[in-house]
Design goal:
The chain has 170 residues and is of the alpha+beta class. The protein contains 5 helices and 8 strands; from the N terminus they run αββββαβαβαββα. The longest helix is centred in the N-terminal third of the chain and has 17 residues.
Length: 170
């Protein structure tokens, strides 16, 4: 619960700064390792992050009550439709909510990529999420290479180009 307070507070503080859709991705120079996790989706399927090693993975931390999170979901679906055939994985990690909240949300915002539940906010804490939405792009070696705090248009050509280029790095 304490973690949810900090995420909510961070969101409220950031909302004035990033309420509008942001543009690009911030390069994480040190490329820290992405913490492993094992989370379930709303259908009860388990996803272990370490099983995705060898693939570029977009990991979006969000919540249904977060306006910028809701606003970026359609563009994430459009990006997923373009990237999934290229071997890029997309995961949306809902922070602090249960399957009922997510189910109600997806009735209005249908998505095809996995939506995982971090009901205790332990994964978002391990990934050092300070506000919602926060998205990481992880390279095929399991390192966090890019971060985006605030909403984005994920199907924007420049973002897709950056993600595709990361996939091609030897």
């Amino acid at each position: 619960m304490k973690k949810m307070f900090w995420i909510l507070l961070s969101f409220l503080l950031l909302q004035g700064q990033v309420g509008a859709t942001g543009k690009g991705l911030t390069l994480l120079e040190d490329k820290p390792p992405a913490p492993d996790f094992n989370l379930k989706d709303v259908d009860g399927n388990s996803y272990r992050f370490s099983d995705l090693k060898g693939r570029v993975v977009i990991v979006n931390f969000w919540a249904t009550w977060c306006p910028p999170c809701r606003a970026e979901m359609p563009s994430m679906q459009r990006a997923w439709e373009q990237l999934r055939e290229e071997g890029v994985m997309m995961l949306a990690v809902d922070v602090g909510e249960d399957e009922d909240a997510i189910f109600e949300f997806t009735a209005s915002y249908p998505v095809e990529f996995p939506i995982l539940m971090d009901t205790e906010a332990s994964v978002s804490e391990a990934w050092e999420v300070r506000g919602l939405p926060t998205t990481f792009v992880v390279d095929q070696w399991g390192r966090k290479v890019y971060r985006a705090v605030g909403g984005r248009e994920w199907d924007a050509p420049e973002l897709l180009k950056t993600i595709r280029e990361l996939k091609e790095v030897p």
